[in-house]
Amino acid sequence: MTRLESNKVLISKKPESVFEFLSDFNNIGLLMPDQVEGYTTDGETSSFTIKGMAKLGLTYESKTAFSEVVMKSFGKVPFDFKLICSIEKATDTSTDLILFLDAELNPFLKMMAEKPLTNFLNLLVNKYKEISELSV
Questions:
Q1: Would you say the pTM of this structure is higher than 0.70?
Q2: pLDDT digit string (tens) for 87-116?
Q3: Torsion angle of C-alpha atoms 105, 106, 107, 109, degrees rounded to 10
């Protein structure tokens, strides 16, 4: 199992707000960078394609109130993975957010995908920081 990690970002929202945002696939779609095409959700699952890569699907695996949201791969995907959103109170009005990707990558795929996937995680957390600052 390979674990990739985003940068830790400070979100200007309480953990409850961050948790609620990340618990809705419609909001997850707002975080997707330009490299993502065809994002769709039915509320329980989502799917999208990263340009030049495979189609990926997500479904929620677990939600721990105000501290963690875990999504897992869904449907036909090139490798099994989990996306873990770690939500930690920083101050009374802000939250530290880190994303982890646990993926079943063979050594060759790990070598090819590690940097792009880490960049993808960083794009997601940075986009959420940007969105949260617009709606303070």
A1: yes
A2: 999 999 999 999 999 999 999 988 988 998
A3: -60
